[in-house]
Structures are given as C-alpha cells and as structure tokens.
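step 3/5: co-fold with glycyl-adenosine-5'-phosphate
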Amino acid sequence: MPVTMEKLVSLCKRRGFIFPGSEPYSGLAGTYDYGPLGVELKNNIKRAWWKRVVQQRDDIVGLDAAILMNPKVWEASGHVAGFADPLVDCRKCKARHRADTLEPPGACPQCGSEDLTDARPFNMMFRTFVGPMEDTASQTYLRPETAQAIFVDFPSILATARKKLPFGVAQIGKAFRNEITPGQFLFRLREFEQMEIEYFVKPADWERVFAEWLQFMQDWMAACGIAPERYALREHADDERAFYSKRTIDIEYHFPFGQKELYGLAYRTDYDLTQHAQHSKQDFSYFDEVTKERIVPHVIEPSVGVDRMVLAVLLEAYHEIEGGRSTTTESTKEAEVVLKLPKELAPIKVAVLPLSKKEPLAAKAQEIVRELRTRWMVAYDDVASIGRRYRRQDEIGTPYCVTVDFASLEDGKVTVRDRDTMTQDRIAIPDLVGHLSDLLGC
Ligand code: GAP
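step 4/5: write tokens
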C-alpha cells in the first residue's frame, strides 16, 4: 500500500525524526526541526553526497561560505530584480496565494471565489539589516540559493585550488525563501538546505558535461534507494526556466501529492561570472594554458534540496506490513512499519538488545555497545519483549540488531538479526565488528 503523507508525518513525529519548528508557540509556517533521529538521517545524506562529489573526485573542491553577503551580490545575480513569484489576493476572504499554482485555476483555493486581484511579483528573498541601523544602506538578504557564493569566490578558488577546466565547487548549506505558500511537510519550506555544485566548463563542452551530470544525478537517486520508476525527468519549456538558465531538466519524484521537482540541472552559461565581473569590476576569467586564451567559463549546475531528499528517502523507505510479520519470538496482528533505508543512510546502524536487564548479561551487552560505538551510531534497548524491541528498530530503519542472550555467556556468541530478511546468525563476539562492517559496507 503506498504511504500517505499523514502516516509519514506521524512516524516522523512519534519517533523523533522531524517536528514542526517552534511547536509550543503553534509553530512557524515553513519551518521544521530535525530531532535526534532526523539529524542523523540528514547528516548521513549530506555525508554520502559529499563523499561522492568531493572526497572521491579529483575535479571538485568544497566550500562553506557565509549566508549573509553584500547586497550587491544579489543585485548582480539578478535576484533583486527577478527572484519573484506571482502573488494574488482573494478580495473575498483576503487570503494570499501564488497565482501559478491555484487549484482550481483562477479561483481562491480557500473560499472558491474568482474575485482575485491581478498577479503582481513578490520577491522571495528575506530582508534583514546588518548592524544597528535599520535603513536601506544596511539592508541585505538571507541567501535564497547557496550558488552565488561559489560564483563570488570563483577567483579565490581558482587562485588557490590549482584546478584546470573542467572543475567544480560543491557546497552544502542553508537557503531561505519567503515562499508565498509553504507546505507539504518538508517539500516547500522557508528555511531549507541545498547541496549544490557549480561545475565550470569550456563553452564548447557544456552539452557533454550536462549529460554526464544528468547521469550522476540518477546514480545518486539509486544510492538513496529511489528506483527509476519512482521519478521522471522533465525538460523545462522556454517560458518556465529560471532567468539564468539556457537549459533545465528536473528530476521529479512521485510524491503522494503529485509529481514534483526534487533535483534540478541547469546550464547557467557564463551569466553569473559575467554579471559579477561587471558589477564588481574584478577579473572572473580563466586563462587557458593550452590555447593561451582568457575565457569566462560556462557553468553546469546540479542542485538538490536536502530536505526534499530526506522526504523522498523516507517515503521510499516506508513499508507497512498489514497483520505484522513474524519474528522468532512472537508475531503480532498489528500493522508493522519497516523503514527500509539504505544502510549508509540509516540513523542507527546497530541496536544491542540484551535478553535480560540482569547482570552479567547487561554488562556484557554494554561492553559490546562501547566497542561498536567507536565505529557507528548504536542504540541500546533493554525494555519490553525482544519482538517488540525488534519492531521498534525496524520502524526507524536500523539495519542490524545484536541480541545478547544467556548462551552468549557460555559460547561467547551473539545473534545478528537482519532488518529486511529477518535472518539471524550466531557470530563470535571477537568477529562482530568485522562481520558488521562487511554487512554495512562501512
Ligand atoms: N541554485 C539553483 C537553485 O536554487 P532551485 O530549483 O530554485 O535552483 C534547487 O532550487 C533545489 O532546492 C530544488 O530542486 C529543491 O530540491 C530545493 N528547494 C527549492 N525551494 C525549496 C523550498 N522552498 N523548500 C525546500 N526545498 C526547496
């Protein structure tokens, strides 16, 4: 049965993955907080991406730039003039909506009235002030994309990283957009994170590199446990592309609320570097040692929202088994949830479960926990029946449970139980770390 948003949101709250932001104060629209398990999942996604794009490649370097930037950056980039969504007001109920997503078209989604104002552009950048004066001279913006810092830092990176074209710069960080209608849980937020790459190429190479990144993006989807039939590639028409893009293809995931953008690939040409060169009067060119020419590199940009990725990963992993599935010790008639997360992304890699709270079993189990914790996030659970404890771990996607029983004290072995197959193997305690690292692949 396909998962509903209600079920997923409920699991996230009940098990401490994700909560509404500022909850005791009735929340703040468009913000969510990642709880103890959510932060592990999110960090694992970011780490897995960084490993693939920075650590394992020779042609990409990392960056962690300031969120606040000189406001001239946003004038040069075109965001002050052009980063706007069309806003309409309903004259009847006074609600405000994004004109291009009205459902039904031309009518207020809240009261159904067709008495709407004309659409006017609403700039989505959050404004703030730098220093104690709240005047236009000290006004700047919270960045609406991480990309601009990569462009602004291009001359410094070129001078220090000693890279030749083609090469890229990767960054993970917060972005802020004052969305007119945030919603659908983590899908449309006002504060979110992006994982972006600006990949600099010679102009003639852009089509080949664009195709290579489209393939990388699909490989990344597979690493996140998302099969090709769960998403579609969609080319943007000329009139829907962002102002900086000459070609855009989105990976659209089949969310429960419709097929929507998860991951975008844009050909930004030399637009951004040229704009910053003109506005700052600094040199943003690249000297080609072979042709002895100065060029302004062109840019291919694969960009994905971390929060949308978290949402897609959770939706994909969520499995509900009607009537439960039997364990060695007991079966239930309740529906059971198993989060079949890729092992690399699971918040907790191993749970250690002593069959009894009593000594010397508990001490033995704690000794195992201490050793495993040097390698992985480990949970310890000695409350309730072993079947119930397995189900608690299945529900949060823990790939392996290690059960310490009375026989362990005699034969020095523990039982390793697999989340997906539910198979159980007896493993000698000295071999446990090696066995689990083979299984986990890390
Ligand atoms: N630098 C290019 C850029 O920002 P974008 O398509 O506007 O392009 C890139 O955003 C990605 O950021 C999207 O594919 C989406 O995953 C994520 N994203 C954009 N707006 C978002 C929002 N309001 N809430 C959550 N994620 C968002």
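step 5/5: annotate
Residues 145, 147, 177, 179, 188-189, 192, 194, 196, 261-264, 301, 303-305, 307-308 surround glycyl-adenosine-5'-phosphate (CB under 6 Å).
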